[in-house]
Amino acid sequence: MLPEEKDTINQLTKAPIESLNLHSITVVTNLYRAAQGLRNKMEREVLAKHGLSWTSFSILYDLWIWDSVETKKLALSAGVSKATISNITNTLERKELCYRKVDNRDRRITCVVLTDKGRKVMEELYPKFHEGEVEVVSSLSIEEQKVISSLLRRVIRENDF
Amino acid sequence: MLPEEKDTINQLTKAPIESLNLHSITVVTNLYRAAQGLRNKMEREVLAKHGLSWTSFSILYDLWIWDSVETKKLALSAGVSKATISNITNTLERKELCYRKVDNRDRRITCVVLTDKGRKVMEELYPKFHEGEVEVVSSLSIEEQKVISSLLRRVIRENDF
DNA sequence: TCATAATCGTTAGCATTGAAATGATATTAA
DNA sequence: TTAATATCATTTCAATGCTAACGATTATGA
After folding, report:
1. Residue/partner pairs of A76-81 with CB below 8 Å, 24 or more apart
2. Domain boundaries, chain B
3. What is the pLDDT of residues B46-56, one digit of tens each?
4. CA-to-C1' distance for B48 and C16, Å?
5. Which residues make beta-bridge pairs with A101?
6. B3 vs A158: CB contact, 8 Å cut-off?
7. In angstroms, what separates the C-alpha of A53 from chain B's closest C-alpha?
8. Which residues does A89 contact at the CB level (< 8 Å), separation at least 6?
9. ipTM for the complex?
């Protein structure tokens, strides 16, 4: 559903107009569409060269910043399940971009650690990714960027996202 | 990467601070996090009962509004590839929520049509989905909802998302 | 102590996703 | 007309993603 097409719901839905909160619909539709477009653009223009998905990249990013991260924290950070982290870690390990390391104090916990190769990939990829970030929001002024970040953060905080 | 943690990049990255546009990073991070949280919430609280993913639901929604839609338009609307539409249509067909119909004028084109059962599912599901939409943005005032929609729409338009 | 519960990562099974290859149909050009 | 090209949808294959089940480990409490 293209955003502008969504307006036609009033004419076509049996539900009375007054029972629909049109502003909520618009926010949600535009929010998801922008995020989806962002992800597609980054995967296509930046990440495809190294065969990385958005989630794979976000995990590598965490490892780049923190060197070693528990799988549970990776899942929380990326907003995916632990099972997904397990699968993606397998793929990244196969590419020799990271490796697993069992915690000595609590052997239930597994940490994921960045390899030198993984660090090199991030040092090459991150600047390009950042270029993409800048480009995507370049139509907004700094002030508008602050406003939208603040509003998004409110949504995130109030929903425990 | 949690939003608040992203701030630490300045201390940890080798790149000079002045070469990073921190506002862009914040917008992109919060945008994707909010959208991911939104999707997870809806799939968990509303769509799981009928075994539908976000994309499946958005396709059903298009069909609900338009009755019959070409697969190409469905892909454009949902922001996924035609292959994905083909697979999801298979699943929805298996559930008898829609069926394919080859175009008579151009037999390369396939339209997807909503069944009565599909319409009933949407009539049951959409009100609950809409409740979720309202809930997610309820921490923002109407005026703030208008602002964020407007800014998101600018991003969408400028990037051809 | 030692049985029970809680926590953690992985696995199994299934649906989703995209790139690339394929097949079917339509259009174009010679 | 007919061969080449273009445009569709589908299939194939590998990766992503979730839930539920599982096994291993640690914590708790009688």
Report:
1. A76/B2, A77/B1, A77/B2, A77/B5, A78/B1, A79/A161, A79/B33, A79/B36, A79/B37, A79/B40, A80/A55
2. 21-159
3. 999 999 999 99
4. 14
5. A111
6. no
7. 14
8. A59, A71, A98, A100, A112
9. 0.90
Facing B31 at nearest CB: one of A28, A126, A152: A152
Which structure tokens are listed for B111? 């339209």
In eight-state DSSP terms, residue A99 is: E
Closest CA to B128 of B66, B56, B44: B44
Which three-class secondary structure state does DSSP give residue A120? helix
Please give the class, per CATH, of domain B21-159. Answer: mainly alpha
Token pair for A55? 């989630």
pLDDT digits (tens, 9 = 90+) for A115-157: 999 999 999 999 999 999 999 999 999 999 999 999 999 999 9
Of all nucleotides in the shown strands, which has a C1' nearest the CA of B81? Answer: C18
Chain B residue with the nearest C-alpha to that of A54: B32
Closest residue in B to A34 (Cα) is B156
| Residue B142, C-beta contacts closer than 8 angstroms, at least 6 positions apart | A23
- Per residue in B8-67, pLDDT (tens digit) is 444 445 455 558 999 999 999 999 999 999 999 999 999 999 999 999 999 999 999 999
Which nucleotide C1' is nearest B100 CA? D9
Architecture of domain A20-159 in this structure: Orthogonal Bundle (1.10)
Query: Quick one: angle between helices A22-42 and B22-42, nearest 10?
Result: 120
Give SS3 for A106.
coil
Give buried/exposed letters for A119-128 (b at 16+ CB in 10 A, else e): bebbeebbee
